[in-house]
Amino acid sequence: MTEHLCTAGSRVDRWMHRQVCLAVGAVTVGATLGLLGCSHDEKKASTEPSVPPASSIALPPRSTASLPAPDALVAVLSRLADPAVAGADKAILVEGATPETVAALDRFTAAARDDGYLPMSFAANNIAWSDVNAWDVMATIVVTTANADNREFTFPMEFTPRQGGWQLSRRTAEMLLVFSRSSSPGPRPTPAPAPNSEFTLAPTPTPTP
């Protein structure tokens, strides 16, 4: 088909003809790649072994894996929100944690404590495989706090597997830590010192001799 278009008569404009040739050629290449290595040449197909995609070699089918139990995800969040656990000991619960992450976790817990959100409890619902990263899971997390003004709220959170357990994905951790910084009140302004009568009274005039 490509050859036929490329040999069209002189009535076809040369520029348009070239664009059609390129377009058809691109479609032909795409269709060929879409066959996943299959060839119409039986001799070539019989002599060259078929190689499965690299992803099928590296990982088993996801359908053989089990979704985590809600308690497994709740345990991750409960430890992250525990003020008795140092940030350095929480790093293993966050994907790709860095020293900056550790410091941010400590600030997060301190802010939650100071603003009256602790203790927190969690519930994990609607656990499903992530549409973005094949081996991650998404869950709807219901957070219940001790703050009467913000008793309960819901977040979609992503978790990633690690050594037989689970940890908070880097994307979700960054979202939560940024949210905590934006929602935390800024430092209170230092109040002005109370006026001192020693400095506000007019000086007593010195009598002249």
From TrEMBL:
Species this chain originates from: Mycobacterium simiae
Superkingdom of origin organism: Bacteria
Lineage, broadest ranks: Bacteria, Bacillati, Actinomycetota, Actinomycetes, Mycobacteriales
InterPro entries registered for this protein in UniProt: Mtb12-like_C
Name of the protein in question: Low molecular weight antigen MTB12-like C-terminal domain-containing protein
Region annotated Disordered, chain positions: 42-62, 180-209
Pfam families per record: Mtb12_C
Membrane-spanning ranges: 20-37
Keywords carried by this UniProt record: Membrane, Signal, Transmembrane, Transmembrane helix
Protein family (similarity comment): Belongs to the MTB12 family.
Residue ranges of every copy of the Low molecular weight antigen MTB12-like C-terminal domain listed in the record: 67-181
